[in-house]
Design goal:
By secondary structure, the chain is mainly β. The chain contains one helix and 16 strands. The strands form two sheets. Strands 1-2-3-4-5-6-7-10-11-12-13-14-15-16 form a 14-stranded antiparallel β-barrel. The chain is globular. 33% of the residues are buried.
Length: 307
């Protein structure tokens, strides 16, 4: 099943191109929860984790996207079969800025040799413009030009995610379900569909372990499509090296490592499209920290009669 799944995802990924409205992150394998609330907490194993990703896209290109993502998620299975998460995303492109905030809830259900997560997210989207105009008559106060303005709208996501103990996972989700329109800004949040999947194979090399991992993320706003294909090699769950291909956009090299609950990663995207003549590539830094949640306390009482 896992081979057929990855074949399907790969076929989808090489067939289309995508125009960016939702974020594009090379470290998408560390950011499942913001695009699929069903994935919230499924892979954590009784932990709470925080993830920070900063992306400087198309370095040296004036007005290029500059993005920051913060996720916090917790697997609460020790208390009840659910998980909670918070996600915040900031994106600045040219004179536009966007802030997304969502609260995630996922219900976990043991299924077969793995765990199924069914989740929803509710939140807000804030979109603003602050243009700087240079007019032929050098009059920036021209009344016909739009000035700084912003708007806030309701947002909601939904997703399902399954992780198998045999090393593979698959998820299907949709974001910006209301597709709210901000009429004063002539802007609307486009509904997006996501399909993700991956598989990890572990092998022993002497007293060490080498993990080989493949991940695919396909995205669409119904009109256009794009996908990321990632391959990583993980040595003793400590050091990893990887490469990611984003269709019709870039090839990225990534390196990182984990130590005492911390994971630090860096990636560099090499642009492949027309912007490659101007862009110096894209830089991305990822920091993640996980900590085990305490077990549920069991209070015991004794009858004084037997003391």
């Amino acid at each position: 099943m896992k081979i057929k799944l990855l074949t399907l995802l790969f076929a989808i990924s090489i067939s289309y191109a995508f125009s960016q409205q939702d974020k594009l992150l090379t470290h998408f394998i560390f950011d499942k929860t913001s695009i699929n609330p069903g994935a919230t907490g499924v892979d954590l194993n009784h932990q709470i984790c925080g993830t920070l990703i900063y992306r400087d896209q198309w370095d040296k290109f004036v007005g290029a996207p500059n993005s920051t993502l913060v996720n916090v998620e917790a697997d609460l299975a020790r208390y009840f079969p659910s998980a909670l998460g918070l996600s915040y995303y900031y994106d600045e492109i040219g004179f536009t800025k966007q802030n997304n905030f969502t609260l995630n809830y996922a219900f976990h259900l043991p299924l077969g040799n793995g765990k199924l997560g069914i989740g929803a997210a509710l939140g807000l989207v804030n979109y603003s413009i602050d243009p700087t105009w240079i007019t032929p008559d050098q009059n920036p106060n021209d009344a016909s030009l739009p000035n700084k303005s912003s708007a806030i709208s309701f947002d909601a996501n939904f997703g399902v995610y399954y992780a198998s103990l045999k090393g593979w996972y698959v998820g299907l989700s949709t974001t910006h379900i209301p597709a709210m329109e901000m009429k004063n800004l002539n802007f609307s949040t486009a509904r997006h569909l996501y399909l993700m999947g991956g598989y990890r194979y572990n092998m022993g090399i002497g007293s060490h372990e080498l993990g080989l991992e493949a991940n695919v993320l396909a995205r669409s706003d119904i009109k256009l499509f794009s996908s990321d294909i990632n391959i990583r090699a993980i040595w003793d769950n400590f050091l990893y090296l990887g490469v990611t291909y984003r269709t019709f956009d870039a090839v990225a090299l990534m390196v990182g490592g984990s130590y005492y609950g911390f994971t630090l990663g860096y990636s560099y995207d090499i642009s492949l499209n027309r912007i490659s003549n101007i862009s110096k590539g894209s830089h991305e830094i990822m920091l993640k920290y996980c900590h085990a949640l305490p077990p549920l306390l069991i209070t015991k009482s004794r009858n004084p009669r037997y003391l």
